[in-house]
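Explain this fold:

***
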Amino acid sequence: VTLLVALLTWGLRGLLLRRAVLDRPNERSSHAVPTPRGAGLALVPVVLLLWAGLARHDALPGQAGLVLAAALALLLVSFGDDLRGLSAGVRFPMHLLAVAAGLWAPPPDWSLTQGLLPRWADLLLAGLAWLWFLELTNFMDGIDGISGVELGSIAFGLVLLAALGLLAPGQGLAALLLLAALLGFLAWNWHPAALFLGDVGSVPLGYLVGWLLLLACGQGLWPAALILPAYYWADATLTLLARLRRGERVWQAHRGHFYQRALASLRHGQVAGAILLADLLLVGAALLAARGQVWAGLGLGALIVLLMLLWLARRAR
């Protein structure tokens, strides 16, 4: 799978260059050279086909086909955005519809809060969490290597949970296939990146990984599902709140994330490598929480994220 995605990405890069589908640098960019974008066209269809095979053999729970169809719709809309730049008023309703459709997919006995909340409140909370994860995955795709590192680390954590018998085997296999595909993409996206993921990749991948995390919550693994993407949601949430406080237009692209500001003194590879190290430590914290040490795992995860954000903030000065 890794080799297949790497080869498809290589072929796609040539096509994107010929068609001049380029991410041109501007005042908000973290790169200096026009670079092809749209690698999601090579990566996401492979993941969707592999997951469809799992769903056909009942290795994925509920109506997985509905989630895969919604992810395909997001891919098409997001590629239109990469080509022509769709407005937030077009993109966001499509994201919302995909999440709403996906909430019909889990098994009937699935519950985000394990029955703690009424069904309607449980679904509402799940939908908001899923939508936020989708959006922050798109927000955080701002430097070379970061999306492959972050989503790959989450997938790796889910694979380990399945290997320990804490997560359904089919979901672990889905995460393993996703990890393999991301490695094929990362070979081309590590600094200096030969091409970018694009919205056509970050949006549907955020949607699919968010679904895996919600399924893990339904099996009582909500602490692990919270810890694995903890750096992602902490950076994105704190940055959003800071921009709201300053009265900025939060739907517009910017360079205000912790990892982006750290480029003042670090290279892309150094920042992505530091995030990878933090993510691997978060995987350990997630496993600790999943094995029964919930508060220890949550505390350790919070400490890791805090130290990472403080280090990035210091490097930004």
Summary: The chain has a mean pLDDT of 92.
